[in-house]
Specification:
Oligomer: single chain
InterPro entries: F-box_SCFL_complex_component (IPR053197)
Number of strands: 4
Low-confidence stretches: none
Order of helices and strands: HEHEHEHE
Radius of gyration: 13 Å
Largest sheet: 4 strands, parallel
Protein name: FBD domain-containing protein
Number of helices: 4
Length: 115
């Protein structure tokens, strides 16, 4: 997957979005874009079954290094089968976005398989 800069600038501002649930169908670039364009987001839930593609998008590293602060986020809930490399990468992205570890709750459940 390859995302161009001009694709990201067309992402709308989600000015009323306070709660968001995402499954594994996002990339690091997409997560940063959504967080950047959700100024009043308070609660983020990430349900992660397969984390291989999350950090696989080209341009993800560049986007992650352009830090900003998610000032309104109160809680982030991460539901995953196990804390693997992909989950750690997501936690790193959240940290880059100014989300503190105290705001993140991780629930490991080996039976969250979507089969």
């Amino acid at each position: 997957m390859f995302l161009y800069r001009w694709d990201l600038k067309w992402c709308p501002i989600f000015g009323k979005l306070k709660t968001l649930l995402l499954n594994e169908w996002f990339t690091a670039v997409g997560l940063v874009c959504i967080l950047r364009h959700s100024p009043v987001l308070e609660i983020l839930t990430l349900k992660l079954d397969n984390t291989e593609d999350i950090v696989g998008a080209t341009g993800a590293q560049e986007t992650k290094t352009q830090s900003f602060v998610c000032a309104c986020i109160k809680s982030v809930y991460v539901e995953c089968e196990e804390v693997d490399e992909g989950v750690l990468a997501v936690l790193n992205i959240l940290s880059t976005c100014g989300i503190l570890r105290d705001q993140i709750s991780i629930k490991e459940d080996p039976h969250t398989d979507s089969d």
